[in-house]
Amino acid sequence: MVSFAGYAMPIQYADGIIAEHRWTRGHAGLFDVSHMGQFLLPLAADAALERLVPGDIVGLREGALRYSALLNEAGGILDDLMVTRRADDLYLVVNGATKADDLAHLRAAGLAVTHLDGFGLLALQGPRAVAVLDRLVPGVSGLSFMRGGAFDWDDTGLWISRSGYTGEDGFEISLPADRAEAFAAALLAEPEVRPVGLGARDSLRLEAGLPLYGHDLTPEITPVEAGLSFAISKRRRSEGGFPGATRILAELGDGPVRRRVGLAIEGRQPVREGAAVIVDDAVAGIVTSGGFGPALGTPIAMAYVPTAYAAEGTRLQVELRGRRIDATVVPTPFFPKSYVREGASR
Amino acid sequence: MTRYFTSEHEWVEVEGSEGTVGITDYAQGQLGDVVFVEVPAAGTQVTKGGAVAVVESVKAASDVYSPVTGTVVAANAALADEPALVNTDPEAAGWLFRLSLADAGELDGLMDEGAYKTFVAGL
Questions:
Q1: Which of A1, A11, A269, A298 to mutate to test the interface with B (most CBs of B within 10 A)?
Q2: Domain range for residue B33?
Q3: What ipTM describes this predicted complex?
Q4: A324 near A266, Cβ under 8 Å?
């Protein structure tokens, strides 16, 4: 158990990180992510929220999720978050370590935000997640990727989204905290489900090429540098009106100075956060996430490098305890995603 | 043959003037899944308590300290292809390196198996 964002959380359960990682890729892993912040905003706050994020919130359809980011005036990322338009409110999920700052930021902008601190959040991820969850909560299989809906289980109201942080198909389930343990126990009683800790959550998201706030995303990094331009909605690109818009729109047009890239590492030695990226004998960038990819069986990393060295196939080096190891810029995700998108055949 | 243990969870098995070094079952359990092991080359001079090898798990990189002073005579080549031997068989096939002892007197400061078991039970 470790302290994480003020919560005592397991790095791993009895199976260990690699087994938990592989179980999630092959079956269904259950994650307790109740440390994450869950907020509500009035529907009428959609336009006001747009002044803080580059996503289209006004145009978001009911039941749809949008990935976005709270930005500072320089266009740097204060947090990344999910916004869902529900029938009666906007539902936000933010990072655990930043939720107090996010609350203050939203309130300072005049938004009437409610912190759902009496709610837990569970994630069920993996190819068997849909079959398992539909058994307990009939109808969830009707959701497509990045869609959410209200459901019931044992007289408990659940808000379920088809989303996650592993690159696998899966769901995130918001429910009253005093019912979370019973629901988790019901899921764990299903043969396809095993509990998964923070360690495998990190290795799964790394293989999926998903950035982690506080590591790959910081207040000094813009969404364009981070490879998150998809989160800057079309209407917002033409209208602007979000923090750092001048810089971000310029970066969209001309390209950013640096970019987040995926690195394939030669050999078997994991490269960790903080390792220097070397080009032509000089430090050119820094690794922001790195480790061993259990489903790939090789070390992988994410780094920020100057745009000139960000092209796929670029050969670089990474410094590791005084030695230099060859690395190659590769596309992410490292491991293919298996989301069930709307309109796709199932 | 006698096996000695350190408070840093290394073991050294001594036979004549040579010792074989590894990490204990308790240590591998704490580290979790080992994915890479960096072992010293033959000829490397090591000192008691000095960092001499690195065991990397999915979680983190951890230094291994030499239980005694000496010169490395061999490293476990099998770990290059199968680092998980440190998890599955830490106190036999998952050994890290072999060294010639400079001073057998250093062994007096180490724990025997019983003392190490008591030490671990108190952690």
A1: A269
A2: 2-107
A3: 0.82
A4: no
